[in-house]
Description:
Blueprint: E1 6-15, E2 18-28, E3 33-38, H1 44-51, E4 59-64, E5 70-73, H2 85-90, H3 101-110, H4 124-136, E6 142-146, H5 154-165, E7 170-174, H6 178-184, E8 187-192, E9 195-199, H7 206-236, H8 243-266, E10 283-294, E11 297-308, E12 312-316, H9 323-330, E13 338-343, E14 349-352, H10 365-370, E15 376-379, E16 382-385, H11 386-392, H12 409-420, E17 427-431, H13 439-451, E18 455-459, H14 463-469, E19 472-478, E20 484-490, H15 493-509, H16 531-558, H17 563-566, H18 568-603
Parallel strand pairs: 3-7, 3-8, 5-6, 6-7, 12-18, 12-19, 14-17, 17-18
Antiparallel strand pairs: 1-2, 1-4, 8-9, 10-11, 10-13, 15-16, 19-20
Helix pairs in contact: 7-8, 16-18
Amino acid sequence: MAPPLIQLKEVSLGFGSKQLFAELSLSIGENDRIALVGRNGTGKSSLLKVIADQIEPDHGERILAPGTSIAYLSQNPQPDAKQTVRDYVGEGLPHSGKDDWHKVDVLLAEVGLTGDEDCGRLSGGELRRASIARVMVSEPDLLLLDEPTNHLDLPAIEWLEQKLAAWRGAIMIISHDRTFLGQVTNACLWLSGAQIRRFDKGFRFFDDWVDEQMRLEEEARHKRSRQIERENRWLSKGVTARRKRNQGRLKRLMEMREERARDINTAQSINASAQTSKVSGKQVIRARRISKTFGDKVLFKDFSTIIRRKDRIGIIGPNGAGKTTLIKTLLGEIEPDEGTVRLGTNLDILRIDQKRIELEESLTCREVLTGGNAEQIMVHGEPRNVAAYMKDFLFDGAQIESPVSSLSGGERNRLLLAKAFARKTNLIVLDEPTNDLDMETLDLLENILADFDGTVIIISHDRSFLDHLVTSIIAFEVDENGDSIMVEHAGGYSDYLARRAVARASTETSPSKPKQEKLNKPTERAKKLSYKHQRALDVLPKEIDALGTQIARLEGLLADPNLFTSNRDKYDKICTELDTARASLAEKEENWLEVEMMREEIEG
């Protein structure tokens, strides 16, 4: 076997009284593509900096194989604002390769930059692409990437996946993007409890492995608890008479108690939730043939959609396509150039955007959450103990008095989420919520949204996040003429990809057909509703209300926990009736909305 590129031997690092890792040892081989995984605050970024020789460990050795080159992508790259992108990327060339500027130009073209841009004027996504080009241009033996997909859109993430798949050197990555890690890694390092464990399979197998490790540890904890009980019985009989012989045994008992205390303190479960306020109308947002243009750029044109109560909508597209503008238009914050937007009744909107508010460094967590030094915070209209509420968001109870300045980036984001989700809402709108979130906080957010009983609209480039949450995708695409178009697909991101592939294959194999006129775009405006449509407008609301009552009654019957075992036939019959009623309700609501839109168009 080839010798490792780099080794860490019994390395320890801490900041102040906090020990990040102790006597940690690892090695990275030339074929390793490693996901570095761990809870927020365990020291993943610090470990990457030790490997990159950016910081010195307190103890231990860092052994680099002769001739090994390393490039490190920081989570927050900070180039000179006055230098050009080409000069910034060129800094990644080795001193012996300063004549290889053609490599710089090739990479800049791949990431969609000219090189003439000033670094100080770059967007977050542009800076990230330039920084990735900078660390790749020298083709190092070991590439260290700290959250490389932050602020990247899907085309850029897919490009990076392809680039890393063809990479000849070793890679170590910290990322919250599960799909990305699953595509590019063949091993995992799990940093937990100041120690590290290696798993020699890619990240797509990591969760199952962790579940098995947790099961084994739970068995060990159970055995340890029984051992403590036996030792406590022994201790109660008195140590004094056997002091010299049994000090070692007493020491082992104390160590086991400390370990048990750590188990209890770290085995937190996710209890955070978002609670709906008053019930919104069945129709939350209706957009009718809306268009928006900035200068010569058409962001969207003639787009229509209906967002109903409890829908979960994912919005995707390249950076700059107009996703945030679409959100603002749908919420009525800006007017469309053409078309109309109607908001439903009783909406209570919670907006979390990509430019999350800055927290004042000197404030404590208690002050941020309560606005002062109160012991309680109002959560969903009810008083809660602040420390208990913080535990729901995976904080240590002792952190209640910690200043914001002491929190990591992931902890700050969790604190902001805790503050936001304390209020009731029935419509949550998230604009790039996964930017700068660690995986732990992302899991927390996913759990909150999955259990939320209202409507959710999400702009995101995180494919796994979208697949786990959304019921439909609105995608910004480009048609065969190069024009911007918007399409809507049922399902998550994977469903969208599958349907898009089928549609493309069908277009390539089928003869061209004239475009079919949209049903909701009449060539000549009708003067009035037909008798049939007017009748539907009068009758359907009553039928919808009746079905709602029927569904509530059937759901009440199914709530009986003994029904399944006591009367299986009745249970099956109720389930069949409920499915039929729900399908009929969906159909009648759709028909009513269609006729209502026709009526409004006729009345102008």
